Amino acid sequence: MLGSDFPSAPPRGFFLTKIFHPNIAANGDICVNTLKRDWTSETSLSHVLAVIRCLLIVPFPESSLNDEAGKLFMTCYDEYAARARLFTDLHSIKRKPSPAKSATGSLTENNAADAAVAEVEKQKVEKQKKKQKENKKKGLKRL
Length: 143
Description:
mainly alpha
């Protein structure tokens, strides 16, 4: 978004679609130096877009706006990638309106999304427990 003081001040960059990424905040704000301290009035919008594109391809979790995504990216990339895929599946596809919850208990789109997120969280906890159990077994073998 270009402000009235552009190009002396940087534009505001943000995503409308929810994205699970270390450098994208929950409200869509983008954490990139080109839009903050490295901004000059000579910086072109094409350069800004190229930098954002590179950031999406190669995240920089050390300066994350989304702490959960940054930690997962650094500690367990597979879990990070699964969560990012889930966000993509839930938020990037235009869905047909679904009927409200009926007496038979069918899920609305939001309930289905919540159920999917809960399932990922459950798998995450199970994976951590399994990893702890394996580490405990390794420790016992060493004794």
